[in-house]
Inverse folding.
């Protein structure tokens, strides 16, 4: 019989807020289920602790700074988090479930992906219930408000409190093409050319 490996599985998360992105090892967290429990437990501290952390401004991956001390992150500032680690069920039998596509508007992002619901659940009331806390979204695609692709995650945790709007929809806002902007600039030039010229000022 082979000896069991007693080491805990490695876990790392990347937390995205409206202004910063922080990554590190969450203190006391060894699986996704425990991470969700801690995030949704209102009796715990308002901050979660990241060890071996790094932080950078949003949209500036080249500016990452590794910190020499643990980083505290306010959970209510989290928009979503990428989770890298196991998802233990601890032997709990789950009811039959099905995945549905949803679109979430969580400024400055729109997020598209799948959420898991009880098979007979109505999508809109079930989504409304999920938005009361942190929940898992799979096969997530993240876009900016204008529809430009920013990234994707096989398994992310979304803060329902950060979601302004949500719908059980496959659709999303597509990026605006450059053509309308060019047309607007041309029209502005035409309109400016059509304005009467100001009378020439006389020299004193």
């Amino acid at each position: 019989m082979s000896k069991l490996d007693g080491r805990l599985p490695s876990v790392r998360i990347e937390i995205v807020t409206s202004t910063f992105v922080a990554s590190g090892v969450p203190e006391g967290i060894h699986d996704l289920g425990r991470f969700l429990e801690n995030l949704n437990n209102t009796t715990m501290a308002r901050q979660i602790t990241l060890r071996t952390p790094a932080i950078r401004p949003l949209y500036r991956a080249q500016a990452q700074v590794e910190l020499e001390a643990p980083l505290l992150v306010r959970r209510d500032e989290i928009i979503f988090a990428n989770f890298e680690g196991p998802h233990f069920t601890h032997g709990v039998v789950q009811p039959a479930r099905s995945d549905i596509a949803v679109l979430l508007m969580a400024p400055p992002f729109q997020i598209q992906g799948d959420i898991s619901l009880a098979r007979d659940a109505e999508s809109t009331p079930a989504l409304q219930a999920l938005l009361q806390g942190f929940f898992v979204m799979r096969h997530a695609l993240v876009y900016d408000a204008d529809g430009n692709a920013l990234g994707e995650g096989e398994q992310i945790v979304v803060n329902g409190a950060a979601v302004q709007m949500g719908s059980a929809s496959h659709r999303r806002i597509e990026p605006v093409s450059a053509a309308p902007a060019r047309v607007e600039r041309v029209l502005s030039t035409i309109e400016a050319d059509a304005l009467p010229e100001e009378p020439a000022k006389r020299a004193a």
About this structure: Residues 12-84 form a domain with the SH3 type barrels. fold (CATH 2.30.30.100). Helices lie at 32-40, 123-130, 178-194. The chain has a mean pLDDT of 83.
